[in-house]
Amino acid sequence: MEMGKVEPNIPLENGRRNIAQSMEPSLVSGSTDRHGMDLEEAQAQPRKNGPAGSPSKNRRLTQPPARSHAHEAHQAHEQRPPNNLAAGRQTPPPSPAPPPRLLAVAASSPSAASPPNAVISRAPEPARGTGPRGEPGCTCRGARRPRRPGLSAGNFREFLDWYKDKNKDVKDAFENGQGNALMICSRIRKDLATCCALEVTKVIKNELGDKNFAILVDEARDCLIKEQMAIILRFLDDNGELQERFLAIKHITDCTSAGIKEALFHVLKYHGLSINRLRGQGYDGASNMRGEFNGLQKLIRDESPYAFYVHCFAHQLQLVVVTVAQCCLVIADFFNSLPLIVTQVGSSCKRKDALLAKHQDDLIEMMENCKISSGTGLHQETNLARPGATRCGSHLRTLLRVYTMWNAVVDVLAIVIEDSREHTSQGGASGLLVQMECFQFVFIMIFLINLLNITNMLSQALQRKNQDVVEAMRLILDVKEALQTMRDNGYEPLCKQAKHFCEEHGIDVPNMDDLVGAMGQSARSKNKVTRDHYFRVSIFSVAIDATLTEMNHRFNEVNTDLVDCMSCLNPANNFSKFNDEKLIRLAEIYVEDFTQVEWLLLRYELPTFLTNIRRSEEFDGCPDISTLARLMVQTMKHRNFQLVYRLIELTLILPVATSSVERIFSAMKVIKTDLRNKISDDWLNDLMVCYCEKRMFKSIPDDQIMIRFQKKKNRKGHLPPEYDVIS
After folding, report:
1. Confidence (pTM)
2. What domain range is 343 assigned to?
3. Would residue 148 count as lying in a domain?
């Protein structure tokens, strides 16, 4: 038996054992002072005094020992000196410390008045709350383990200690409060997070009231490879402001449309939200979400026919960009070479440091020559990143960084070529360098920057929370006009810009009148065109035409009857598109929200509304429907024109993009990390609600959370009586 260990094979009765069975008779009866006993002798005595025929190690006790031995153990316990560790009041004498497990057994042993065969728990490791030598301390829940110098107590308790040093009231509460009511146990923290999340959700549901709403749903995997579904509510509040509130995140095991529908309905039912009030759906373009016959949107419309589905506009625009990247052979080769350049330049720490150092030298030189200005937030340290098919704006971001770091990228590629010991170890850096220092590469790079800059402005506008579908369709039409203008008048300025860039960086500019193969064909081909025709027709016009065609194909909502009727509410240009018949048709589409009598009244309310708004100075220059709704609430016109305001509400809650849901998954990566990957689903949901709706969470009084926490279960600590009158 090793020092400090208890024999593992001693049988337990219902998880507990007799102290006389846990220690050998000679070990207990032969010691008057438990600190002065030689442990080696105590370990040797059982082998010498054990019953005949029993094994020397790991012997099983089939019968309890004689009562004389137990009585001797009891007498030894009574004769124990008062200043031992079991008393826990005075310092023990300077003698060799016994094993920790035996100290824990002695500390938890019964008092002197206990019967000899008293049953106690088996000695565990020194529990949280015991002293460094094993002496008994506060073993209640939430007790704190004394910290050794240089050791961390964990993020939560380190932060708690820091906050106690900053706040005297908190420090006094912990030092002078009850030791069994510290409220720092993991279960207590989870209960507090649950109470906070319930209060935030209560505020969201009170803000929603009995109004109609739309849902935004998306799925993503967490760090533990669990599929999580985030749900956001989109509605118009009492102030006429368009709100998108995070409702819940739920782990789903069935990613089919039927499984997602069941999980979604379970969340809505749990929060008391009726599916009959659902007036819009916003998802991505996955087949299980947007399927025409078996998708989630179809299954929900079977339950709620007026929950119209809108494919996320930001996703559709990103699909347009991906199509442009593969529209012709030359541009496809360009985007195939771009990730290789990024890999070659940033594949090692040495190359990345060299890239940043050379770019910094270029910036300092340009500042000295007054080519660029310095200021707060300008010219931050950056690096190259690969373009992603699912990341909005990633293609433009990569092109802009290559454009601004051109000299540094070229120098690093040259370093890779020089440092390679063999020609096969350079990884194609020489070919990439030759390809970059070519007029065609520069022309395509600058052309795509100008083209994607137009679509990127639309992407950022679509991702705003208060964006409505009418304004989104107007922005799409503006982008189409800008692309058409670029196709008609943008080629000559583009050529000048490319030639100027080549002259600055020492790149040869070819003669635009030379003959080359058409559409990237070989120079030996009989079908030859001038180089100017090749760049204008085979690259410039093809890419813009592909963009316009794809946008007309993707954004087909502009041709639907629903959006066409909603566009009549646009207040731009003094309600130039206002049409009574189309607005009445919009009310007929939402037949659940308007009765036949209200249809009749709407015919007389619409002309009066238009005349009243045009005469009001507050509505002069009103840009969009969101501003119109807010101004109507401020001027109390939403009460005079309730039917028109109801049409405005139905128009605004129709979703445009699911970027708000994607922000939720970005927050999930902050909360659930690789170091906290075992966090439970309920706790994750509670933390996500408090984190994503932090402004609302800060506005909730602490008293409400304390009362809910007190009512959750009966606890040792209770609130003062005056809290009972708080509702």
Report:
1. 0.74
2. 319-557
3. no
